[in-house]
Fold this sequence. Notes:
The chain is α/β, with parallel strands linked by helices. It has helices at residues 4-21, 24-34, 50-66, 75-80, 82-85, 104-116, 131-135, 154-171, 177-204, 219-233, 268-281, 312-315, 320-333, and strands spanning 42-47, 70-74, 91-98, 118-125, 138-139, 209-213, 236-240, 258-262, 284-289, 302-305. Helix 1 (4-21) runs antiparallel to helix 9, helix 3 (50-66) runs parallel beside helix 8 and helix 3 runs antiparallel to helix 10.
Amino acid sequence: MPGEATLREIAEQFDLWKTLFEDLELLQKDVSINFAVREYDDVLFIGAGTSYHLAAAAAAAYRFVAGETALAVPASEVVFFNRYNLIKERKYLAVLFSRSGRTKETLTALEEMRKHNRIAAVAISCDPSSPLCAQCEVSFPVKNCFEESVIMTKSFTSMLFVSHMVTMALSERFANATYLEQLADEGKAAFEMQRRVIDGITAETPLDRITILGGGPMYGLAREAGLKLDEAAHLRTQVLNALELRHGPRSALTEKDLVILFGSTSALDLEIDLLREVKSIGAKTLVFCEKKEREYDGIADYIIPAGRGIPEVYRGMLYMPFIQYLAVRAALQKGIDPDSPPNLTHVVTF
């Protein structure tokens, strides 16, 4: 049945997060053994496609939690434009993401860094036996995360979850474990109660042009949301830092557009003002937020609250299953099988 595998994998991710959290103590020991002495200047997060958006979200979280410099770089930029992105005199802790551990760009990026830079390489992959895990000094595999579907769903959020645990261990911010522990139950409860909102959107709103807004820790997630809607359902999307919508793109908005906001805490007041502008143009709005604010009345057509009390640096992960579900529902509506969209493969090579 079309979409069956993807829907199953979306629903499975919450239990997988819980399983990953159970290995936190073991992960902390691995980090303390391998990084007892800090021998790097900066941290790089590297990936391709969905894994690059994952790297962007992981880097933002690292900067906030650890209070240190961290960059997210597409694997292809490291391969072909190494000197534009990396400084030869500095040593990097390079965290590389790949679901299969066989993505050619990412493996080649690792080779190029070993030639031109001083690095300590860490792999986060869903295949412990992959070349990427074998070629890195340290690997933190996401076990039991095989995906039948071509598009990444539970692998994306689960690798992000592992990166949060690694960041916490590297920065020794162990109090954050409380928030990570809450994500599985909070996410599952929100998804079961609120996914009907997505059903309502696909039933009531013709989906064609979608603008996705997110800033800070939400930007990498917003980028991934755009990709998911594009690859699964062939929807036209643009992704912007929230307030960048005011600088030109708002001129193209019409009543046929859907604007999705990954709501933050840091910019809440300004985001509400922006939604008010969007509604004055007539576009539909979907807001992901910590809790329903009275100010959303009349300016949010659809609201999905998730993760009350969880800081924004982690809360955005709870929004992703809804976007994945929206992508599946929109694909099925257009007669596309999201389990195997045209022109895509499990592993990308060049």
